[in-house]
Design a protein that fits this description.
The protein has 235 residues and is an alpha/beta fold. The chain has nine helices and nine strands. It is elongated and about 70 Å long.
Length: 235
């Protein structure tokens, strides 16, 4: 089982978003566990304040080190320091998230995600607790929660047992470095468009060959950098 601990100012947002559909059922079965830790619960300020002005001036407020650290420490006290191997700060300054990273993280037993807000988090606590800085891409969100939820979804679906059909995680886009081939369901003809005859042939070898051909063509057209990388690995 993999447990995701998400340090956030908006625990309801995280829990409502991640306890639905496939992930919700996986959590109910015990294949994964998701915990949202409210950073605001750990502030020493009587008004529940977790942010302050930045030294040196500038726009916006910065999340303070103390409540973030104490929220993190509450998880460490629960699971043990040796199990808190990966603490992921969700930030546009991090390495860009991708499928192979999701696959690597799916092998962890415990993960702590730290969601920033406002202008970010005091650098000192980041230096002390964070092991990985990860970004969804070159754009800025109002907080780290949505990005953390995307990463948890991508990671969790690779955990054994979460998807009932284990093959589906391997054959979809990026599973083998290519984009997924086009797929079809009933009826055979819809709006005058017919399902490719090869898929109705029952010849699995020919179907597999067609799917690879389609994946290669689609990847070459839409993601040429992935196509080139795949062709280098499969001369």
């Amino acid at each position: 089982m993999v447990t995701f601990h998400i340090l956030t100012l908006f625990p309801d947002m995280v829990m409502q978003g991640l306890h639905t559909s496939i992930l919700g059922r996986a959590a109910a079965r015990g294949d994964i566990a998701i915990e949202a830790v409210n950073i605001r619960d750990f502030t020493t300020d009587k008004h529940g304040k977790v942010d302050d002005y930045t030294y040196g001036g500038g726009a916006g407020m910065l999340m303070q080190a103390q409540p973030v650290y104490d929220a993190y420490q509450s998880v460490v006290d629960q699971i043990g320091q040796e199990r808190a191997r990966r603490v992921i700060y969700v930030t546009p300054q991090g390495k860009t998230f991708h499928q192979e990273m999701a696959r690597e993280l799916s092998r962890e037993e415990e993960m702590i995600f730290l969601c920033g807000h406002y202008e970010g988090i005091d650098e000192r606590v980041l230096e002390e607790i964070v092991t990985d800085e990860i970004s969804l891409g070159d754009y800025v969100l109002t907080g780290g929660e949505l990005a953390a939820m995307v990463m948890v979804d991508a990671i969790a679906r690779l955990v054994p047992g979460v998807l009932h059909n284990g093959e589906s995680a391997e054959t979809e886009s990026f599973g083998d470095g290519l984009l997924e081939y086009p797929q079809y369901s009933r009826p055979e003809i819809w709006h005058g468009r017919r399902v490719p005859e090869i898929l109705l042939s029952g010849d699995h070898a020919k179907v597999d060959a067609w799917r690879l051909e389609q994946s290669l063509a689609r990847t070459k057209e839409r993601r040429p950098e992935l196509y080139e990388k795949y062709m280098e690995a499969h001369p």
